[in-house]
Design a protein that fits this description.
192 residues; alpha+beta; five-stranded antiparallel beta sheet; two-stranded antiparallel ribbon; 5 helices; globular
Length: 192
C-alpha cells in the first residue's frame, strides 16, 4: 500500500533549483542531500545562490567519484536538475556514471526514449509554462503502459516567471487540469 505523497521523486534543492530522481530511491535521496549541501555551502561562502551549471558540475563530480574506486558502489539513480539563475532557465541530466548534459527538454527513467521522442515534437520555445505542464502530463500518461507498469502518482514542479523564478510544486488546480487533459488525450488515442 502506497500513501499519496510518500514516495516523492521531485525535490527542492534550493530556492532557485529543483531535482527529479529516477532509479533507486535511496540513492536518489543521497544525491539530493549532497546537492542541497553544495548549494547551501556555496551560498554561505559567496553570499549568492549557486549558478545551476556550477551546481550540476559539483553533483556530477560527486556521482562520478563513486564509479572510480572499488570500495564504493556506483549510484543506481539518475537525476534531472533544473533551475533559474542569472543566465536564465537551465536543465541538466546527470547520469549514474557522473556524465552531465544540458537540455531544453529531456526525460529520465523507464519510458525515457518514448518520452524524448514526444518532447522533440514540441515547440518548447513557443510554449508558456502552463501549456508545457499540460503537454508533459500528456506525454507521461501516453508512455505509461498500464499492462506492464505499476500505478503512479503524477508529481510536477516548475521554475518560471509565474513562480517568481522559484522552485515550487505546480498549483493543484493546474495539476488537475493537466491530469484531465492527459486522460482525455489517452482516451482519444485508445478510441482510434
Amino acid at each position: 500500500m502506497l500513501l499519496e505523497g510518500s514516495n516523492r521523486r521531485i525535490h527542492a534543492v534550493h530556492n532557485h533549483a529543483g531535482m527529479a530522481v529516477a532509479g533507486l530511491a535511496a540513492d536518489g535521496r543521497q544525491i539530493v542531500a549532497r546537492t542541497k549541501s553544495e548549494a547551501t555551502s556555496y551560498e554561505n561562502t559567496y553570499g549568492e545562490p549557486i549558478p545551476i551549471k556550477e551546481l550540476c558540475e559539483r553533483v556530477a563530480s560527486y556521482v562520478h567519484l563513486c564509479t572510480l574506486y572499488w570500495w564504493l558502489r556506483p549510484f543506481g539513480s539518475g537525476v534531472i536538475l533544473g533551475g533559474y539563475d542569472r543566465d536564465g532557465p537551465q536543465l541538466y541530466m546527470i547520469e549514474p556514471s557522473g556524465v552531465a548534459y544540458r537540455y531544453f527538454g529531456t526525460a529520465i527513467g523507464k519510458g525515457r526514449q518514448a518520452a524524448k521522442t514526444e518532447i522533440e515534437k514540441l515547440k518548447l520555445s513557443e510554449m508558456t509554462c502552463r501549456e508545457g505542464v499540460i503537454e508533459v502530463a500528456k506525454i507521461i500518461y501516453g508512455v505509461h503502459d498500464e499492462a506492464k507498469d505499476k500505478a503512479f502518482e503524477l508529481e510536477m514542479s516548475w521554475i518560471c516567471d509565474e513562480s517568481k523564478r522559484r522552485h515550487q510544486k505546480v498549483p493543484a488546480d493546474l495539476l488537475e487540469e493537466a491530469k484531465e487533459a492527459a486522460k482525455a488525450a489517452q482516451e482519444d488515442m485508445d478510441a482510434d
